[in-house]
Protein backbone atom coordinates (compact mmCIF):
# COMPACT_ATOMS: atom_id res chain seq x y z
CA UNK A 1 0.00 0.00 0.00
CA UNK A 2 2.67 2.50 0.92
CA UNK A 3 5.20 1.58 -1.77
CA UNK A 4 8.93 1.01 -1.79
CA UNK A 5 10.15 3.50 0.79
CA UNK A 6 7.52 5.42 2.71
CA UNK A 7 8.96 8.75 3.81
CA UNK A 8 5.91 10.66 4.99
CA UNK A 9 2.51 10.03 6.51
CA UNK A 10 -0.03 12.68 7.48
CA UNK A 11 -3.72 13.03 8.30
CA UNK A 12 -5.59 16.27 7.56
CA UNK A 13 -6.76 18.47 10.43
CA UNK A 14 -10.38 17.43 9.88
CA UNK A 15 -9.44 13.72 9.78
CA UNK A 16 -10.88 13.27 6.29
CA UNK A 17 -7.69 12.69 4.27
CA UNK A 18 -4.61 10.50 4.62
CA UNK A 19 -1.47 11.28 2.60
CA UNK A 20 1.48 8.90 2.14
CA UNK A 21 4.64 9.84 0.26
CA UNK A 22 6.95 7.25 -1.30
CA UNK A 23 10.52 8.30 -2.03
CA UNK A 24 11.66 5.50 -4.37
CA UNK A 25 8.46 5.34 -6.43
CA UNK A 26 8.27 9.16 -6.59
CA UNK A 27 4.58 9.18 -5.57
CA UNK A 28 2.19 10.78 -3.16
CA UNK A 29 -1.01 8.86 -2.47
CA UNK A 30 -4.05 10.54 -0.97
CA UNK A 31 -6.92 8.56 0.52
CA UNK A 32 -10.27 9.69 1.91
CA UNK A 33 -11.18 8.51 5.39
CA UNK A 34 -14.88 7.84 5.98
CA UNK A 35 -16.51 9.60 8.95
CA UNK A 36 -16.49 7.66 12.21
CA UNK A 37 -20.26 7.09 12.03
CA UNK A 38 -19.89 5.28 8.71
CA UNK A 39 -17.04 3.13 10.00
CA UNK A 40 -18.91 2.29 13.21
CA UNK A 41 -22.08 1.33 11.34
CA UNK A 42 -20.40 -1.69 9.78
CA UNK A 43 -18.55 -2.89 6.70
CA UNK A 44 -15.53 -0.90 7.80
CA UNK A 45 -16.37 1.86 5.33
CA UNK A 46 -15.61 -0.42 2.37
CA UNK A 47 -17.41 -0.05 -0.91
CA UNK A 48 -19.48 -3.25 -1.22
CA UNK A 49 -17.58 -4.36 -4.34
CA UNK A 50 -14.24 -4.09 -2.52
CA UNK A 51 -15.60 -5.70 0.63
CA UNK A 52 -16.51 -8.82 -1.35
CA UNK A 53 -12.80 -9.33 -2.10
CA UNK A 54 -11.77 -9.47 1.56
CA UNK A 55 -11.01 -12.88 2.96
CA UNK A 56 -13.00 -13.93 5.98
Tell me what the structure shows:
The chain is of the alpha+beta class. It has one domain (6-51). Helix content is 16%, strand content 32%. It is built from two helices and three strands. The chain has helices spanning 36-40, 48-51; strands spanning 6-11, 17-22, 27-32. Strands 1-2-3 form a three-stranded antiparallel sheet, with no helix packed on it. The protein is flat. The two termini are 20 Å apart.
How are the SSEs ordered, and which strands pair?
Layout: E1 6-11, E2 17-22, E3 27-32, H1 36-40, H2 48-51
Antiparallel strand pairs: 1-2, 2-3
Key structural traits:
flat; 2 helices; 56 residues; three-stranded antiparallel sheet; alpha+beta
The helicity comes to: 10-25%
The spatial strand order of the largest sheet comes to 1-2-3
Largest sheet: 3 strands, antiparallel
| Shape type | flat
Report the count of strand segments: 3
Structural class: alpha+beta
Number of helices: 2
Short description:
The chain contains 2 helices and 3 strands, in the order βββαα. The chain has 56 residues and is of the alpha+beta class.
